[in-house]
Amino acid sequence: METVSWNECQYFCRRLSERTGKRYRLPSEAEWEYACRAGTTMPFHCGETITTDLANYNGNETYAEEEKGGFREKTLEVGSFLPNAWGLYDMHGNVWELCEDGRHENYQRAPMDGSAWTEKYTHKRLRVLRGCSWYGNPESCRSAIRLYCLRDSVSNSILGLRLVSE
Q1: Is beta strand 96-103 parallel, antiparallel or unpaired with respect to 164-165?
Q2: Nearest-5° angle of CA 15, CA 116, CA 134?
Q3: What is the residue-averaged pLDDT of the chain?
């Protein structure tokens, strides 16, 4: 799903949970990064570098020693690239994925159990984004990169969601 706000995602999760009887939610920032890395410690789940053969981002820009790649200029269907080691598709590029967490300046006093950091926001209206989009550069596709958006912001086809089911 793309072109959605954090507030719309919250509404969708509530309605889906009501309809199915299962709990759905956005991942915490820690859960998202853990899932993206899939047991690795490198910048990308696929290794030390990335190319447009591995993810959907602006290939006019390069990472490390890689050559320029394609720039598709749109969101692609999920599963257009190989999954990570845990079978999760498109963790790098395609759309920035919304997380449950609010924006904090750093990780000091962050929850140690992987839960969302929803208390004492540095900026109450900002929410964490992970993963990068088709419009972003390869540096922004790294597993550890984070951006922020307003809770009610809808950005043309670069914001999306990945649900967690409990």
Answers
A1: unpaired
A2: 75
A3: 92
